[in-house]
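User: Sequence for S53 family peptidase below. Tokens please.
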Amino acid sequence: MTRSALALSLVVTVAAVAVPSRAEPASAAGADVVPSCAAPVTSGQFRCFALKRTGVRHGKPSGRPERPEGLGPADLRSAYRLPFSRTNATIAVVVAYDNPAAEADLQVYRSTYGLPPCTSANGCFRKVNQRGDAAPLPAPDPAWAGESSLDLDMVSAVCPSCRILLVEADDASLNLLEGVSTAVALGASYVSMSWGLPEQELELTVDPLFFSAPGVVFTAASGDSGAAGGPVYPASSAGVVAVGGTSLRRAWNWRGWTESAWSGSGGGCSAYIAKPAFQHRVRACATRATADVAAVGDPATGVAVYQTYGDVGWGIDGGTSAGAPIIAAVYALAGAAGGQGAPAGYPYAARRGLFDVTSGSTGTCTPRVLCTGSRGWDAPTGLGTPNGVSAFAPPR
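Assistant: Structure tokens for S53 family peptidase:
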């Protein structure tokens, strides 16, 4: 059976996933936060994990724009001690539906922060459909446009010299996985996926087809439902780097920042995927454990995003959706593509290159590390957040 035929034949059902016991499920969104994408109304649909702060949206800038609210590129570089790099590696962002304003909005974001232009004219930016063609593009969708705007801005913030490939699937079905294959076929070394769905047994068949390309780093958001949500796919794939979320705030300390597990960060023990060798020290799970690493995800401490299709301009966004493109770009800065072994395993061999997140909670659970920021690995934040790029480079 071909990859396309298998994807189309995959019938998604909500699996009876074994999750840790809990009494207080975390809420991903407070009164001033709304999901960019609504929950799917039919099975087999992925959901994007972007979250938007309400009450902080601003209209289009006229003339010289004011400095946006929310964390910007300099904040992320400072918090995660990221270097400037001249790499022109290609990072793919895979989403559903078309964002007609994607390129124009990206240029506003980049120019506001003094980042170099990244346009189709200079060869830095390219937008294609799931088959790799420039036309016809999918139907536009304001909800998923919020996801693509967040992802494109985060890639730009962390790796402004990287090339960006935006792959737009026809819809939020398994066509997204076809979009992943197209991204790889078009030369992307890093692929960011800020969407997911509940685990299911057919992951075992799908995984080798979509997430085993040598020399490619895949990152995926771990979900925004806290401990109550359990693992989501494709973050639960052993071939994917699962990215959780944190609350990131400035502080008067040696780092200049403080970080805790964000209450909405998803993760846990996979119901189907076997434990990969690089997780042999993760004793809380007998199977694949998520997350692996994390980055800012709390909308209350969120990132600045510029979106005009489906929104009014500048806003503050979050969710584990922010972390997936951030971590993909960190891998690009580290030059991880082409390295040996599973990229998700690199941080496990270089923990000194991470900020361990040891506080914050996503609910009540047993064992505690499945819902609480803890020393070493924990489900909400994995091994921690970037402290430079050393933990994201292939082991020597």
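The helical segments are 3-9, 73-80, 102-112, 142-158, 175-185, 203-210, 226-229, 320-334.
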